[in-house]
Task: structure prediction
Amino acid sequence: MNVSDLREILQYVPRFRERTFVVAVDGEVVASENFSNVLLDLAVLRSLSIRVVLVHGASHQIQRLAAERNLEISNSDGIGLTDAPTLQVSIDAAIRLTNEIMEGLSSVDLRAAYINAIIAHPAGILGGVDQQYTGKVERVDVKAFKLLLDEGIIPVVPPLGFDGEGRTYRVNSDSIALEIGGELSAAKILYLTPSTSFTSPSGLPRHLSVPETQDLLKKRRSDFVPGLVSKLEYAARACVQGVPRVHVLDGAVNEALLSEVFSHDGIGTMIYSNEYQQIRRIFKKDVRAVMSLIRQSVHNEELVRRTRAEILEHLEDYWLLEIDRSPIACVALHLYPAESAGELACLHVSRAHENQGHGKKLMAFVENLAREKGVKHLFALSTQAYSFLQQKGGFESAEPALLPAERRAKYEASGRNSKVLLKTLRS
Ligand SMILES: CC(C)(COP(=O)(O)OP(=O)(O)OC[C@H]1O[C@@H](n2cnc3c(N)ncnc32)[C@H](O)[C@@H]1OP(=O)(O)O)[C@@H](O)C(=O)NCCC(=O)NCCS
Result:
């Protein structure tokens, strides 16, 4: 780890202090070797004063216990029908697993409590079939969760729900995580799923908005295993219910939780509600971020050197593209009103975020802005990205003589010999 990693981590710490994360772990992940690392990640989250609720599945353990007992079960994941013998084996397997998790949490000095705070009712008759002991979350006992969380205790929630009559139901753990996340106004839900969920040929994108998630499920549903489809569906619903970020992670990856939470690239797939990505004006405090973003491009002679004073002088011209409040790209529009001209300048996308459409997005953004400002001639100067501006932005090669007089003088003095590109904006 180097100093810049530490800086990246530290910027997230104040944002998440005393916020709630719901970590939902599949039974198969609990059974895997990597679970001891997951426990250590939870200990780090707690040490940073992040409130953690741990929800676990048990499908894997239910199937194994049923096999041991030579029992044919009606369903193991809490989505299909649960008959009476399946409910019994589900309770036995789930509670055994809860106990194992409690032991694991004790081994990393974390205080935890098994909690019966999921109030459920029968899922009822679906498609003409009585689902018997399959339950649906009716309500989350928020007060009970808060009592534990306020005391620094991790509530551990098995995939079971209870009704006021003392009956137990088998409830799918993904849906439990969704309901808890919504009711506790969690900052995140993190689904840790088995590696086998990630077998789709083209994988999952790193970031998905809710409409993109819904579109993906419509078009490529059959590419994904049912467990992953269920997580994506619940993730989109959680965002709609007010959870800002839901992460789907490979539970076999060491430090998956920490890498996802404390880096803006992450390692899994993040489903986000809309304010996650934004283009915004810069303020005085952002000048340093712009300078550090463009440093490498200046070094490579892709962009012209700018001093802090020069940026400050034209502060209102500069824009930042942020992902999750971290700046990943910038652009500027300098105006020459006398010539109805504008310059698209300082376009830079950080290396880690190249080829994800951000450059095109910022070009289109500046073009729209320029139109709003009455610009007729949008130009750009480039040493190495002129074909990008031509092919992706519709700019055409032009003569330096077409530049506004003030800009032409600077161009000639710079000796950079950049190519001049022009786009005529028609209203
Ligand atoms: C040029 C730059 C802004 C592109 O940003 P980006 O976010 O990676 O680009 P997008 O994801 O929107 O577009 C990617 C497409 O542009 C193409 N592209 C990227 N850089 C290119 C370049 N220098 N020349 C030609 N095409 C380029 C990619 O091959 C890709 O093509 P495809 O869609 O056909 O696969 C970015 O690479 C950068 O910051 N470069 C350094 C600074 C610079 O030169 N700025 C321009 C000053 S005017």
